[in-house]
């Protein structure tokens, strides 16, 4: 788990600040704050992920851009020996592109 703290910076991977544990089975990880970010799951559930788009190709472009960003970040982690064991929409953060790009 602490290998994560040693990987080189990537603009789409939140940085860990502190590692702790309540017991052997429950690690605690405190990460940097990502202002104005919601999980992909929340964005999809409340349909805010799709707001502001009139045409299907615009929505498809946003979805593909999001997928590519996630793949690039996961690839970066894998290349540095870190595996994400619970990758799902609930733990993918979506922020404003202008803040992270």
Which structural class should the secondary elements be placed in? Answer: alpha+beta
Strand order of the largest sheet: 1-2
How many structural domains can be distinguished in the coordinates? 1
SSE string, helices as H and strands as E: EEEHHEH
- Poorly predicted residue ranges: none
* Average pLDDT for all residues: 79
Question: What integer value in Å does the Rg equal?
Answer: 15 Å
The share of residues in helices is 25-40%
Enumerate how many helices there are, as a single number. 3
Span from first to last CA?
26 Å
Describe the global form. Answer: globular
Strand content: 15-25%
The tally of strands reads 4
Sheet bearing the most strands, described?
2 strands, antiparallel
Layout of secondary structure:
Elements: E1 16-23, E2 26-31, E3 38-39, H1 40-45, H2 56-79, E4 93-94, H3 97-100
Antiparallel strand pairs: 1-2, 3-4
Describe what this molecule looks like in 3D.
- This protein is α+β, with helices and mostly antiparallel strands.
- The protein has one domain (2-100).
- The protein is 34% helix and 18% strand.
- The protein contains three helices and four strands.
- The chain has helices at 40-45, 56-79, 97-100, and strands at 16-23, 26-31, 38-39, 93-94.
- It has a two-stranded antiparallel ribbon.
- The longest helix has 24 residues, at 56-79.
- 4% of the residues are buried.
- The model has no long low-confidence stretch (mean pLDDT 79).
